[in-house]
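Predict the 3D structure for this chain.
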Amino acid sequence: MLTTNARIVHAEQSIMRQFDSRPNVVNTPVNTVRTSKLMDRLREALRLRHYSRRTEQTYSLWVRRYIHFHNVRHPAKMAEPEINAFLTHLAVKEKVSASTQNQALSALLFLYRHVIGREIGDLGEVIRARKPKRLPVVMTRDEVKAVLASLSGDKWLMASLMYGAGLRLMECLRLRVQDIDFSRIEILVRDGKGAKDRITMLPESLKAPLQVHLKRVKAIHEKDLADGWGRVLMPNAPKEWRWQWVFPQENRWKNTKTGEEGRHHTHETILQRGVKEAVRSAGVVKHVSCHTFRHSFATHLLEAGYDIRTIQELLGHKDVSTTMIYTHVLNRGGHGVRSPMDGL
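Done. Predicted structure below.
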């Protein structure tokens, strides 16, 4: 099964092959060069604004699909009507989800605003993809215990942090050593969703296991340094311990051209597969993913009577209405609503 990044790259390569094979498109060298330069400028604009590598790949894919949809016309020669047609096509013909359509729109708005230098006005009557109203899957406390009991080692620790601190999958994997504050018993989540930093709690029960884990990681880092490596991909102080990943890869990556070696953080698919196997072993029949730990974190805090604004801050939600979905999961408000049947 292809990972998300692999699917994006595969789709991008497929689209570029279609550029060359379409009979009704005159794909001249000039046209190819212009498209290539545009994509280079798009990537440069994204990196200057510190967008993630994944966002860069995704936005590049949507821009290529937009160009391909309009027979390889340069976006500078198109505007609102062409964007409208593309977004409508996604909803009507390809039947994409609302979030996918919004992602495509975000990519095109970024392209026109920051690369082409033009603000997009009213798009007119865009047919919007229908957004399904679904409640999040939440595990009971016993189910969380059973799933965690089926995990071990680093996977247990990562899953425990996602549940105990309400972390998203990539927020957990991208933790650096300096983000863990044992004295204040808190975790600093850097550059979370929406490019926001936030502070959440460090569960007391995870302090000792996490300290033992970091001692082992530090020993690995010191061996990497002794071997002449031990650097993370960042411009300043890449060798310093504080900047190292809390959950590094088991094996060093190697650049076959330069011979350079290093460690990135653990790949998300490793934990995703581990959680999937643990759910099966625990006999939990719900559709549980890594993100379910975060949903369960929020719901269990509400059940314990904590204020929804506090939970909003811990989760990093921009609007409290997003956090309110967990009251629907509980089928109660902040103080709970008791059925009249139970009063008979």
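The longest helix spans residues 204-226.
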